[in-house]
Amino acid sequence: GVVLALSGFQNPLRGHLRAAAAALGAEYRPDWTPECTHLVCAFARTPKAARARQEGGVVVGARWIWECQRQGRRLSCGPYLLDGPASSGSEGEEPDEAPPPSNPSPRVKKGAGPPET
Fold it and tell me: Rounded distance, CA 1 to CA 50, Å?
């Protein structure tokens, strides 16, 4: 019964999240709609997250998807909830964009340049 949308993730991470959720049986929507049950967000305090909360959605970080994938089942959202009021931006906030557990490549933040080899 999970219908989710993603917010704040760039490809290829966005594609990995979508694929992992689909493999677990979730339905994906390209944007938040009233039928969505979960918004998987990189940032807690965004207008999209506030809208999802106002409409009864659950706002979680990417770690929820990765842990569900790792354990092969739907987990409680409680430990993965992203809480916070809406703000016009997300400055000073760290994104919740943990890579998939099976991805051994180093995490690279947007604008950080290529990883050193």
Answer: 22
Q: Which 8-state DSSP code applies to residue 43?
A: -
Q: Where are the domains of the chain?
A: 2-80
The model's pTM is 0.74
Q: What is the CATH number of domain 2-80?
A: 3.40.50.10190
Listed as own residue / partner, the contacts of 49-55 with beta carbons closer than 8 Å and 24 or more positions apart are: 49/7, 49/82, 49/84, 49/86, 50/85, 50/86, 51/86, 52/5
Q: Categorize the per-residue pLDDT at 51 as very low, low, confident or very high, splitting at 50, 70 and 90.
A: very high
- Straight-line distance from the first to the last Cα atom of the chain, in angstroms, rounded to the nearest whole number: 43
